[in-house]
Amino acid sequence: MSSRDRCNHGVERRGPGYYKDAIKELRSCPAISNDLAQAVTVLSEELAVNKRTDCAGEDSTPFRLVVEGMPQDLYRLARDEHARARRTEMKLMSAEPGRIRILAVDDHPLFREGIAGLVSDQSDMSVVAEASNGREAIAQFRAHRPDVTLMDLQMPEMNGLDATTAIRGEFPDARIIVLTTYTGDAQALRALRAGAQAYLLKNLLHKELLETIRAVHAGKKALSPEISYQLAEHTTDDALNSGEIDVLRLIAGGNANKEIAAQLSITEETVKGRVRNILAKLSANDRTHAAMIGLRRGIIEP
Questions:
Q1: If one looks up domain 96-233 in CATH, what number appears?
Q2: The pTM is what?
Q3: Which CATH number fits domain 242-297: 3.40.50.2000, 3.10.28.10, 1.10.10.10, 1.10.1740.10?
Q4: Is the pLDDT of residue 170 over 90?
């Protein structure tokens, strides 16, 4: 028997906007798998979505999609995933009311343990999830929706900057604190532009981490004093353009002008011109000095 036959009141037709909203709701569930969400979205776009059933007792989910041509096993999987995600979300919302829920992201387990140890003594916050790289961070954020995320920068598979950009792109209200050993103004500026609300040096965690978490949770921004000084010192500097940064990166790698020209597919004269600009903009004495400045300020990575 069809869904239409089972419904006492028949099928209530809806416009395309209703189904788009329903698909959006499904995809926004915190625990839903990416592959499933993408499959449902693709099917909803390619197939004719033309009916909705509201049979009392048939479903415990807020909506039921019947997509013409959609395999029933995929539909059931979507429905069950949606219900599971809703239960997870409700459980997370009801757990430890009033506490700041934290996601700790770092590729060193001992560092994550240190963070958990600091937080465990506080009555107003708790670590609810951990991740060891950027990809895991995105998945854990979707699953747990933390109030504050502590994000390392240098990690395998996906770095902290890319993860911050991805999380903020999907969840604009996400509050992220970057934790790093790098004091460079350029690195800090990239993190802030990616959407981080705070930039904290790891050697200051015992002094500043807890108050920084509370400040960021309250909607404030925070920078370590040393980072603030670095940013202020170089505010009026003439920044290197992308071509100059490419040359500086290769200089730091020990390449001569001829080798740089070959790798970048430009002339040696162009390389020389960019080197002159780099030395002037960084107030560097020579190529080696320029490379050292670039590494210290985070213009290039080691």
A1: 3.40.50.2300
A2: 0.55
A3: 1.10.10.10
A4: yes
